[in-house]
Every structure is written in structure tokens, then in C-alpha cells.
Structure prediction request, 242 residues.
Amino acid sequence: MPYLPPPQFNRDEMSDVSTKALGLSAGARTPIRFGAWAGLGGPVLFVAVFVIEGWLRLGYASSRMYVSALSYGPFGWIQIANFVVVGLCFLLLSKSTAVQFRDGKASRAGPVLLAIVGLGLLGSGPFVMDPAGTPFPQMSTHGQVHAILGALVFSLGPASCFVFFRRFRADPTWGSFRWWTLAAGILMTTAVILLKVATLPPPASPNALSEWVGVLQRIIIVPLMAWAACLAGRMLWVAQRE
Prediction:
């Protein structure tokens, strides 16, 4: 039998073969990185903006007022834009997770949940809330839309953590991130329940939690943003290794 020399590969071909062996093409890594950078920067910027705005806005009390109340007044456009930017960043992050987790657990539900959260955040900007305490039937149309979008974000944010926890628990690459994901989901869920108790509609009377609705809301928002930013940072680290 005649001797057949082994196939020869140039450096680019070898790089492509190695990349395919790892499961991600070079073209797939670019959208992952782009969306991950958006997912890292957007949540951090969102929290920074509403914290600074809360400090500077006269008459605003972070402990008992919602973040969305910063959308009122002549400087309300800042928080409106803040919602829009972070919503777009979540949409980009959801696209990246769809590429990163192409099959297996959370490959469909995870990106979809993040996308819905992103749409909810984005829409919360232009659809400004009505004054706190307004019964839902008496709200304006934009106030009702804001309330619905907020409910989606506060419900599906924790749900996203639980869905991704199932994935991370079974994935060695992401195993170290699973307990942080679970903790964030439990913390947010607890705060959602307490916020619901604090805002029971009439005929329920105000309770000890009613003066702390701003704090309770932030216990939902800040862990959600921190978890999303950490997820994005982890994706960048994984993409760099690959």
C-alpha cells in the first residue's frame, strides 16, 4: 500500500479546527462577547444612575419611593433613558446566552426569559408610572402598562435565575456559578413576596413594610442587575478560554 502523508493544515485551519472541537465557531464568539459586554455594562450603569439620581433629587426618598418615580419631573428623561438602555442591554445579553447555551437545559427558556425581562425594562421607560398607591383600575393607560411590565420583570427575573441554576448545576464549566445564581433567585423571590405584602390594596391597611417599599424594590433590582452582570462577565471569561 502506498504511503499517504498526513493532511497538512495551515495555522488558520488549525485554529478553526480547534475552535470547532470546543463547540463554538470563531464567528459565534463575536456576538457572545458583544452581548456579554452589553450585559456587563448595562446593569452596572443602570444601578449607578438611579443611585446617584436618588441622592441628588430633592424630595426623593429612596427608602420609600420606587426607582420609577425618578421618571417624574424635568429630569425624568434621565431615568426614562436609563430604562431604555438597560432593556436593550438585556436583549443583547439574551441573544448571547442563546448562542452560548445552544442546547441542553435552559437553552430555550433562559434566553427567552432574559429577553422578556429586557422588553419589560425597555418599556418601563416611556410608559411612566402613575403616583404610587393609585389603584390599578384608576391608573392611566401608560401607568397600567408600566405596572404590567414591572410585574413581568419582578416575576421573570427570579425565574431566570432558577432556570439557569438547573443548567449550571449540570455544566462543569458553570458549576461554580450555580450557588450564586440560586441565592440571587431566592433573595429576589423573598423580596417580591414582601413587596407584595407591603403594597396590599384597600381595604388592607398600611403595615410595617409599607414605608420600606423602596428598599424592598431595590432588594429585587440590585441582585437582578448584579446577577446579570456576573453572568455576562462569566460568559466573557468562558469565551476567552475558548
